[in-house]
Amino acid sequence: MKHPQVHPGVDQLKLTDVMAALSDPIRVGLVRLLSDGVERGWGELRAPVAKSTLSHHLKVLRAAGLTRTREEGTRCFVKLRRDDVESRFPHLLDAVLSAAAKEDVGRQVGLMATN
Q: Measured between alpha carbons, how far is 23 from 100 in angstroms, rounded to an integer?
């Protein structure tokens, strides 16, 4: 039996949790990828780590309140909670994304090639 996904409310987002989640280059890369606002299936995501490690990174982002995960059958989808994070910590994501782009942090994260 699947367990429902737990997402902290906007008022429960903690700066230290968000910053800790953003302390890993893979997670920064996932946030960069998801910053386009498109919901992505976990299977679409590509990173130079094992699937179980990628799943861990996605769970850390969800627990910190940076992403929302939705299950549909056996598939999981993820989307950046940009508006929620922005309302709690104005301009934080813009600053992180700008710095990450300048330093090319998370460049190894992308989408699976489609045929």
A: 11
For 110, other C-beta atoms within 10 Å of its C-beta total 14
Let me know if 29 is exposed, middle or buried by CB neighbors in 10 A (0-12, 13-18, 19+). Answer: buried
Instruction: List the chain residues with pLDDT less than 50.
Output: 1
Tokens 């949790």 belong to 17
Topology given in CATH for the domain delimited by 12-107: Arc Repressor Mutant, subunit A (1.10.10)
Q: Are 41 and 50 in contact (CB under 8 A)?
A: no
Q: How far is CA 29 from CA 3, 24, 75, in A?
A: 27, 9, 21
**pTM to 2 decimal places:** 0.92
The pLDDT of residue 6: 77
